[in-house]
Design goal:
Blueprint lengths: L8 E10 L2 E11 L4 E5 L6 H9 L2 H5 L4 E6 L2 E3 L4 H7 L1 E4 L11 H5 L6 E2 L4 H4 L5 E2 L1 H15 L14 H13 L6 E5 L7 H16 L3 E5 L3 H7 L2 E6 L2 E6 L6 H9 L19 E10 L6 E9 L3 E5 L6 H8 L5 E7 L2 E3 L4 H6 L2 E4 L3 H5 L6 H13 L3 E4 L2 E7 L1 H14 L16 H13 L5 E5 L7 H18 L2 E5 L3 H7 L2 E6 L2 E7 L4 H8 L14
Helix pairs in contact: 6-7, 14-15, 14-16
Length: 539
């Protein structure tokens, strides 16, 4: 197949099978030099698989390869590994982090590209014993971070920074490569707030002006419209439509993505619920979570309430759930159902009927190399001794009841619309959004009295986002479960929460009902005072 003149990248009739499941169907995609192409679609639509083919990811080769042709810079290519793609001039920021936790930001940004400095001994023994030029490494990292306009200590280790700054490190690593011709970003802003995401958008525009092409995958349509020259919509592994941002609308794009018209069910249709009984009391809570420190917050949550926690990145909102659940050192006074709750003990929290859906689904939430059904049932099996049966009738020897686990898992797969081949598929093989829904199923099966949910729709597209939020609300109403939801998206919190607390500099700036104006929430996020009568007391 001949190359098309004027294009840097050409994908011709790309198809792919995974475990007997056809996930891509004759994809055609073309990118010009300096062009930013938005690639959108629901989770499981095939976006990440298509980019893995382009980037030479081992999972593609190990599962039988692909059909079709890839032409890059005028030549047909079939990269054997990501190193081949990098050497050809393709950089990729994956949806999930590919960082070394105990390496510094500088060491991660400059990995395998460390500049060397001359050594006198190398005159005798050769250049292999040249020393790494750490000062030059640090300077190059600082320059990359400056493009992003991010203040981050280049000497801090990755395991000491929050999720958002890990993403900045990933992006800095790719934009630091001098020979990059094409940059692929798979949900680069999913873990960032709107203000943080604008930094990335600005950087992409700078790179495009330098002639670097960008494929930008995002579930945030406002970003797609802001930065992209054209939009390619995938659904069920096929291209549905190619659109020009100035000639379309967000609703049209969303309809091509999910295959049906989106109807607005705004939060105004909900009434304010009268809830009285206090289930959780938090007094002077301090949490030592790096870059998300909590500094003496106090609040109460009512039984059956959906209590939202919002705020900008690094202001402490993620620290509350992580601290109470014992994942980071914390101190203060907490009462659950009127009784003293002992901090720094995750096992104790789970046994008391408190569940947690972490913002870090791969690092904390899932057993990636285990099956879907085991992921759903694992915590219930370990904490509540469910899904076990006597071995050969011996009551004191229990083994896993895989049959029961598989049957009940099917119910949650259907209820949450988890897109998988079957309940025995490995969690690692699911798309990012489906992994997130798997984390929710894992918590729901515990039937908790109180559930912390952090960033429940991170990396999830428009249609799946509404599904997850609706499921949370339905679970709250059906079982009376109290939910504390932490999110970077204010509108998401307003859709489901009864009240919303905004954190600023590690403290609660105010708590408002979901009916309050977005302007008032925005002022709280910026640390500004609003009229006292607008703030609803939590006493």
């Amino acid at each position: 197949m001949n190359s098309k003149e004027g294009y840097l990248l050409e994908l011709h009739n790309i198809s792919k099978d995974f475990y007997g499941n056809r996930v891509l169907h004759n994809i055609n995609l073309f990118v010009k030099p300096g062009e930013i192409v938005g690639l959108v679609g629901e989770n499981g639509a095939g976006k990440s698989t298509l980019m893995n083919i382009l980037f030479g990811s081992p999972i593609i080769r190990d599962t039988g390869g692909f059909e079709g042709k890839v032409i890059f810079n005028g030549k047909e290519v079939n990269f054997f590994s990501p190193f081949d793609a990098l050497n050809a001039g393709i950089g990729m920021v994956h949806q999930e982090f590919l960082l070394i936790p105990r390496f510094t930001v500088t060491e991660n940004v400059m990995l395998n590209r460390e500049p060397m400095k001359y050594s006198v001994i190398s005159e005798i023994f050769g250049t292999k014993i040249n020393l790494i030029n750490r000062n030059q490494m640090k300077q190059k990292t600082i320059e990359a971070l400056k493009i992003l306009e991010v203040e981050l200590d280049p000497e801090i280790t990755i395991n000491k920074i929050p999720v958002g700054y890990k993403q900045y490190t990933e992006i800095a690593r790719e934009i630091n490569r001098e020979y990059t011709k094409l940059l692929v970003l798979d949900e680069p802003t999913a873990v960032l707030t709107e203000s943080e995401a604008s930094i990335v958008i600005k950087a992409l525009k700078k790179l495009a002006k330098k002639g670097i092409s960008v494929i930008f995958i995002s579930h945030r349509l406002e970003e797609i419209f802001d930065v992209c020259d054209k939009i390619v919509v995938l659904r069920n592994g096929a291209v549905q439509k190619e659109l020009i941002p100035s000639r379309t609308s967000a609703s049209e794009v969303a309809e091509y993505m999910i295959g049906y018209e989106i109807k607005n069910n705004e939060s105004e249709s909900r009434g304010i619920r009268k809830l009285n009984e206090i289930i959780l009391e938090v007094n002077d809570l301090w949490v030592n979570m790096p870059a998300e420190q909590v500094k003496g917050v106090s609040f109460e949550v009512k039984r059956g309430e959906i209590f939202g926690i919002g705020g900008l990145a690094g202001q402490g909102k993620l620290g509350i759930a992580n601290g109470i659940m014992g994942l980071f050192p914390s101190e203060g006074k907490v009462k659950f159902k009127g009784k003293t709750f002992y901090l720094n003990n995750t096992q104790n929290a789970l046994k008391l009927g408190i569940a947690f859906v972490s913002e870090d689904r791969r690092g904390i939430g899932l057993l990636l190399d285990e099956t879907v059904f085991l992921n759903i049932c694992f915590t219930a099996m370990k904490v509540k001794n469910e899904f076990t049966k006597p071995f050969l009738g011996i009551s004191w020897i229990n083994i896993r009841d895989d049959k029961t686990m598989r049957e009940i898992s099917k119910e949650y797969i259907e209820a949450l619309h988890i897109n998988c081949v079957s309940e025995i598929q490995k969690a690692r093989e699911l798309s990012g959004g489906n992994q997130q829904k798997l984390c929710l199923a894992k918590a729901f099966i515990l039937k908790p009295e109180l559930m912390f949910v952090s960033e429940p729709t991170r990396g999830i597209d428009v249609g799946a986002k509404r599904l997850v939020l609706d499921v949370l609300r339905r679970f709250n109403i059906q079982y009376g479960t109290t939910i504390i939801i932490t999110s970077s998206e204010l509108e998401e919190l307003k859709m489901v929460s009864d009240r919303i607390a905004i954190l600023s500099e590690g403290k609660i700036a105010g708590i408002l009902p979901f009916t309050a104006k977005s302007r008032d929430f925005g002022l709280l996020m910026l640390g500004q005072n609003i009229q006292k009568e607008s703030i609803k007391s939590i006493k």
